[in-house]
Write a structure and sequence with these properties.
By secondary structure, this protein is α+β, with helices and mostly antiparallel strands. Helix content is 30%, strand content 25%. The chain has helices at 7-18, 80-94, 159-181, 197-210; strands at residues 26-32, 53-57, 63-75, 95-96, 110-113, 129-141, 144-152. A hairpin with a 5-residue loop joins strand 2 (53-57) and strand 3 (63-75). The longest helix has 23 residues, at 159-181.
Length: 211
């Protein structure tokens, strides 16, 4: 896919969206990728190093990977479903997405629920519900691929810096894709990516589940 959205166009959209923001509002900016990128391949490299990672793969349907937390909510108790819905409603009431995008590329709040209202003794650190508005969202469906960045403005974050951050991440993913196509693979056939804390945590959790 070839993007028809230039940097100046993206910046103009970001500036327009910022003018619609209220206090503590969230600006959500997206762009179509120049090439089709598989979110599964770049799950560990999206957005650099973040403690939060998410992957949804319903091949051949929507595939989505996410990284980082722009807003997060955790709650344990019998009202967890209602509380989660209130959080989702509050997010979309203060979020500005100044573009018309296909459904696959629209902002998404990611939800994870435990089996029980209150955690068991061996899983006391697991909340009844976790809801996250991710900083980065990479989605693909039916040959379309979009990259989205969501941040609260202020403290050095401006429409211009947000646009630059999104633009540069898009360029980095395309460069990684070129390396992938050139056969830059390790002995297991996996794409060469630097390890990070979340990977070690994932391996530990996997060993615990299988043990």
């Amino acid at each position: 896919m070839t993007s028809t959205l230039g940097f100046s166009d993206l910046l103009a959209i970001a500036i327009h969206g910022s003018r619609q923001l209220k206090d503590d509002g969230i600006l959500s900016l997206a762009m179509p990728m120049q090439q089709e990128v598989d979110p599964l391949d770049f799950y560990s490299s999206l957005g650099g190093i973040h403690s939060f990672r998410f992957l949804w793969d319903r091949a051949p349907g929507l595939c989505l990977s996410a990284a980082g937390c722009t807003k997060v909510f955790e709650y344990t108790g019998i009202n967890r479903f209602n509380q989660a819905q209130r959080f989702v409603d509050s997010i979309f009431s203060c979020l500005v997405s100044p573009q018309v995008c296909p459904s696959l590329a629209r902002p998404k709040v990611l939800l994870a629920f435990s089996f029980f209202d209150a955690p068991l003794l061996f899983s006391k650190d697991v909340p009844g519900v976790q809801a996250v508005l991710p900083r980065w969202q990479l989605s693909r469906q039916k040959g379309q691929c979009w990259l989205r960045l969501q941040r609260t403005l202020g403290e050095g974050v401006t429409p211009s810096s947000l646009t630059e951050e999104l633009w540069e991440q898009s360029r980095q993913l395309v460069a990684l894709l070129d390396d992938f196509k050139d056969g830059q693979l390790d002995k297991t056939g996996a794409f060469i990516l630097s390890s990070s804390d979340w990977e070690e945590q994932y391996r530990s959790a996997l060993k615990l589940a299988l043990g």
